[in-house]
UniProtKB/TrEMBL annotation:
It comes from the Bacteria. Keywords: DNA integration, DNA recombination, DNA-binding. InterPro entries: DNA_brk_join_enz, Integrase-like_cat_sf, Integrase_catalytic, Integrase_DNA-bd_sf, Integrase_DNA_bind_dom, Integrase_recombinase_N, Phage_int_M, Phage_Integrase. This is Integrase arm-type DNA-binding domain-containing protein. Residues 207-385 form the Tyr recombinase domain. It comes from Larsenimonas rhizosphaerae. GO terms for biological process: DNA integration; DNA recombination. GO terms for molecular function: DNA binding. Belongs to the 'phage' integrase family.
């Protein structure tokens, strides 16, 4: 028999949940605490014959008449083959994400989230969005996430492959795959079509950064010492050769990281690729050059302020442009200095562990897990880098 408002009011809570049925799947459940809630029971329309239940709200906020109206709407959905629970999920997502499920919308959301995580000094935010704007969004930006097929993604990546841009292809593949990961875990995509594409793509040959050989090294040293451009840049190139740090670590260096008395530079963890502080021993020649740099930029927080805006640092192209002007275009780049230094130290007979620590590399295998020695005893890395500086420059 259908329920009546009188019957609902007369039914008191008991020790267990009481269920009053109105028929056609609609029922009112009364808990021992006195809470009363409407439920609609139905069989899923997917042919599985599985039963499901959906909440329609609390009584008396939802009256008997309103509950019947809501259950009628749900039965209409079922008649059209639509699962009410799934439809409710879709409506909830549309409220949460009014921009829809286009690749552009998810890419924008992903990028904003990543930008908040990346270091303020990093160029990753600008570079990642530029790559998406140039190579991805013009082709699939306005498409629904689940509408873009693996073959279409394969063609996007193969365009870069045909142009020989294997590193850019790798980055774009990573960005797009990560965007789909966000979409999948938030229920806005059914699967990630970029997961298995690597099997159909060529692997680009790993290329080392251009760097001079040991035979060419004296020519590079002479050119840097005779550099006729801005003095600060020439001194920076010398420091790269004497420390083997990454160019970005040097460009972003602060004066408060240096102890010129103990001859140690400590790069903080947040600026290091390995995420831990890195101690850099400074040979005598580097100390002399740092005093020269201090006369130029010592009144600024950074060693290498921009000439156009002293509140900012020099750009990531500055050292590279100086090397080009010296005639080393295609032969040597700033990051390649690390290759040159590592090779030279190896040929001088120094232990690989000292060299890897100087480069702030993680040791391979089990050593990288358990070995954290910094090799900063006077006769270890400090002596090694002093010998290297003596080989390159006058003792100063």
């Amino acid at each position: 028999m259908p329920l009546t408002a009188r019957q609902i009011e007369k039914t008191k809570p008991g020790d267990k949940v009481k269920t009053l049925s109105d028929g056609m799947g609609l029922e009112l459940r009364i808990s021992p605490s006195g809470k009363r809630g409407w439920r609609f029971r139905y069989t899923r329309p997917d042919g599985s014959k599985r039963r499901n239940m959906i909440s329609l709200g609390s009584y008396p906020v939802i009256t008997l008449a309103k509950a019947r109206e809501l259950s009628l709407d749900l039965r209409r959905l079922l008649a059209d083959g639509v699962d009410p629970a799934e439809q409710r999920k879709v409506e909830k997502h549309e409220q949460l994400y009014p921009n829809g499920y286009t690749f552009y919308a998810l890419a924008k959301e992903w990028h904003e989230g990543k930008t908040a995580q990346w270091k303020a000094t990093s160029n990753r935010a600008r570079m990642s969005w530029s790559a998406l704007e140039l190579h991805v969004l013009p082709y699939v930006g306005d498409r629904g996430l689940d509408d873009i097929t693996p073959m279409e993604w394969l063609e996007v990546l193969r365009k870069l492959e045909r142009q020989g841009k294997h590193e850019q292809k790798r980055k774009v593949h990573f960005f797009c795959r990560d965007i789909y990961r966000l979409a999948v875990v938030t229920g806005r995509a059914a699967n990630n079509p970029l997961n298995d594409l690597s099997v159909a793509l060529q692997r680009g040959k790993k290329r080392h950064m251009a760097h001079v050989s040991q035979d060419e090294l004296p020519d590079l040293v002479r050119s840097i010492e005779n550099y006729s451009g801005y003095e600060l840049i020439g001194l920076g190139l010398k420091l790269l050769l004497m420390t083997a740090v990454r160019p970005g670590e040097l460009r972003q260096a602060h004066w408060d990281e240096f102890n010129l008395e103990t001859r140690i530079w400590v790069i903080p963890a947040e600026r290091m690729k390995m995420g831990r502080p890195h101690k850099v021993p400074l040979p005598r020649q580097a100390i002399a050059d740092l005093h020269r740099i201090k006369r130029i930029s010592g009144h600024y927080p950074h060693l290498f302020p921009s000439r156009n805006n002293a509140s900012k640092i020099i750009s990531d192209m500055t050292f590279g442009m100086a090397l080009k002007r010296m005639g080393f275009e295609g032969r040597h780049v700033p990051h390649g200095t690390r290759h040159t230094v590592a090779t030279g130290l190896k040929e001088m007979g120094y232990p690989g562990e000292w060299i890897e620590m100087q480069l702030s590399h993680k040791l391979p295998g089990i050593q990288g897990v358990y070995t954290h020695a910094e090799h900063m005893a006077p006769e270890q890395r400090p002596a090694m880098m002093q010998a290297w500086a003596d080989k390159l420059f006058s003792t100063g």
